[in-house]
Amino acid sequence: MSSQITHVNASEHTIEGWLRKRSSVFTWRRYFVSLNEKRVVNYYARLDARQPVGTIRLSRRTKVSLDPKKEGGLIVHGEKTVRFAAESRRDAVLWKEMLQGAIAGTLLEATARVASDTADPPPKSPPEEFEDFFFDPSCYALSKAIGRGSYGLVVSGRDLRAELPCAIKKIGNAFADLVDAKRIVREIRLMHRLSHPNLLRIYDCYANGLDFDEIYIVTELLQTDLHDVIYARRPLSRAHVQFFCYQLLRGLEHMHAAGVLHRDVKPGNILLNEKCELKLCDFGLARCLTTDMTEYVVTRWYRAPELLLSSSYDGAVDLWSLGCVVAEMVERRPLFGGRDVIDQIRRVASAVKAVRPRDVAQLAFVTNHKARAYVMSIEANEHYDSWADVVPKLSDSKTGLDFLSSLLRFDPANRPSASRALKHPFLYSMVQELGNAATKTAPVDLADIERCPLDRAALQQILRLNDLRYTPPPAAINNNNNNPSDDDAAAADQHPATDNNGDEQKNP
């Protein structure tokens, strides 16, 4: 039987199953939908719910079409336009036929045809591109490739044990470069240790063979990232920006409480699903505060002044990066798109000197005398008088500009912590509605990895003993995905849901 159409009754002239309904620009909620011969479509938040969340009454004038812009999408044109989405195009075609049958008064014939057509098709063999992709078919079913990079391939699939969608990243030749190998081992450890709703969750980690040439990381599956949302020119309201900032700060607050810096916060490392739930990902450059810090992090455009000027640093670097991301969401362009490190310093310093000159007056945190002298020699940007000139699309929000300026303080000592930033008036409505209770976490210990020499066998041993393991997703996640509560459904209708980044090298 189809994965979405769960019940077809030709004698009672009804069809039932799961569909997603669009509530706002980015919000799609999953509902149990029932269609009957009286041309009534009821949709319920749960399978066992007594009262529908909503009702659509069809008429002879109602039109039903497939949505060309969304895979499996359906558009019902009636008194108002309603958009649904099935799990596949095949399901969407079946639902379209049933809806048209109800409109035409021929639901009996339509249900009979659909009932004979809803048997599951025979299982498909994996596509050719997955032939060298190692996995246990009793644990995972692969779907399609969703990303490629220097590390290898990322595919979407399904965790058959948890009955949840997942993403599987293949890292080929994982130990060919031991510096990269240590980074991979560190990232896997952090993903296992850092558990928070706004940090990407790891489900599994396994290797192909004893030589560890290929490592596979299984995580949650999210549909897109913030970079694609920004540059696809999809509508982003002020509420979207606030909701994303709230979630990012929650994730960073948890990381910093565990003594971990992300060090590569940028739109491409911020994943989003259709409900605009946000997950910070890619911990390849993350470090514990207790370890020696390198001054090099990958993405230049989001690099804090203390990193550009080779000074010591702490969690404030992530807050600066967040400020750059906020401005990019609003303006739909990078805030400081420097061509190289020198140009990046010039752009940052000239802007800050123009809008807040006292921020660049002392530079006590800059220990390099030549770096300090260079910053002092940079002229203020004559086109800017305030942050409203730098980020004009935020000029209508006094609290928004104040929030942004607090994150983009040149001296890291003047930037707020993630916890303090969450209390800013710009996020007041989000905190009031969603809460601000910090999640408890213990400091992450990476001492064994940091002490480990760049030795293939030693790094493999750490991975084998500690981090090659399956972590079943909490049952609550599965229940919530399949049976959203009435409260969740109502909240979804109210909430917004939703590489050329100056990179100098790619993460493994």
From TrEMBL:
GO terms for molecular function: ATP binding; MAP kinase activity. Its EC number is 2.7.11.24. It catalyses: L-threonyl-[protein] + ATP = O-phospho-L-threonyl-[protein] + ADP + H(+). It is an enzyme of class 2 (transferase). CDD domains: PH, STKc_MAPK. Residues 473-508 are annotated as: Disordered. Residues 140-427 form the Protein kinase domain. Residues 12-104 form the PH domain. It comes from the Eukaryota. Its cofactor is Mg(2+). Pfam families: PH, Pkinase. Residues 491-500 have a biased composition (Low complexity). Keywords: ATP-binding, Kinase, Magnesium, Nucleotide-binding, Serine/threonine-protein kinase, Transferase. SUPFAM superfamilies: PH domain-like, Protein kinase-like (PK-like). ATP binds at K170. InterPro entries: Kinase-like_dom_sf, MAP_kinase_CS, MAPK, PH-like_dom_sf, PH_domain, Prot_kinase_dom, Protein_kinase_ATP_BS, Ser/Thr_kinase_AS. SMART domains: PH (SM00233), S_TKc (SM00220). Activated by threonine and tyrosine phosphorylation. PANTHER family: MITOGEN-ACTIVATED PROTEIN KINASE (PTHR24055). Belongs to the protein kinase superfamily. Ser/Thr protein kinase family. MAP kinase subfamily. This is Mitogen-activated protein kinase. It comes from Chrysophaeum taylorii. The lineage of its organism: Eukaryota, Sar, Stramenopiles, Ochrophyta, Pelagophyceae.
